[in-house]
Design brief:
262 residues; four-stranded antiparallel sheet; two-stranded antiparallel sheet
């Protein structure tokens, strides 16, 4: 029998391997070891990639130029792999009738799990102390309004990475997302945007941008008494102390206040 010069094996998701040079002999068995370059595919996928064998066009085999079989005829390259059936003889040499491989048998082929798909879903909203004000203070925890995405592959990493920016630029400055976020104070409540970047354990990620813009105040958020952007709240003024009039002194006429002009 003639050994193929190269073989490519298809798979359930990652396409075919690069050309594989078989090891061994037809009599003792051929070993095929190849790599599926799943990272080159643009189709996001999470799941098991398994080598295919009995399906149409599962195998692409090439033979040396002019190669012939035992009877001298040109070899027809196989497009799949069959299992051995009943034995028979050709010119005194043993042969086996090929039998199609069942799908249930092909499902036992070697495989590996693949994940090149980003997490999906999730949400990030502002939950200010005063609802609707779009103001936060420097103790605000962005995680209170964060709903993580879901991932059906390798699983999410623990926690998200956080970024903020001055609108309309995209959030690009890293911060911790927690109650010591350190975002500078702003003059208006539509100054900043923010996002959470959540990754899975293989580095696929999704950006979840906060709904709407916000401002940062050093003082408690103001009441939403007007719509649209508002100026940063000022510190509440303290009432000034009123100095009582001097008491009258014995022997001295009391001071009188002149009447206002008419």
């Amino acid at each position: 029998a003639t050994t193929p010069s190269s073989v490519r094996i298809s798979s359930t998701f990652c396409g075919r391997t690069a050309p594989i040079t078989p090891a061994g002999t037809p009599a003792a068995g051929l070993a095929l070891t190849g790599i599926y370059a799943c990272q080159s595919l643009d189709i996001p996928y999470e799941g098991l990639n398994r080598a295919t064998s009995g399906r149409p066009s599962a195998i692409v085999a090439a033979y040396p130029g002019g190669a012939t079989g035992p009877d001298g005829t040109v070899i027809t390259a196989p497009t799949g792999v069959d299992k051995l059936g009943p034995i028979f003889s050709v010119l005194g040499e043993s042969r086996w009738a090929p039998v199609n491989i069942l799908q249930s048998e092909e499902d036992q082929n070697p495989g590996a799990y693949v994940d090149n798909k980003a997490p999906a879903g999730g949400a990030l909203v502002l939950v200010p102390v005063v609802s609707g004000s779009r103001w936060i203070d420097n103790t605000y925890d962005f995680r209170t309004g964060y709903t993580p995405p879901t991932d059906g592959g390798s699983g999410l990493t623990e926690g998200a990475e956080w970024f903020y920016g001055i609108a309309p630029a995209a959030p690009a400055t890293a911060f911790n997302g927690g109650p010591t976020h350190g975002i500078p104070i702003s003059a208006v409540n539509d100054f900043y945007n923010a996002k959470a970047m959540q990754s899975d354990r293989l580095g696929n990620f999704i950006d979840i941008t906060i709904v709407g813009l916000f401002g940062v105040s050093a003082f408690p958020a103001p009441s939403p008494s007007r719509s649209g952007p508002s100026a940063a709240p000022a510190r509440a003024s303290q009432p000034s102390a009123v100095k009582p009039p001097n008491p009258p002194v014995a022997g001295r006429p009391a001071a009188s206040r002149p009447a206002p002009p008419r």
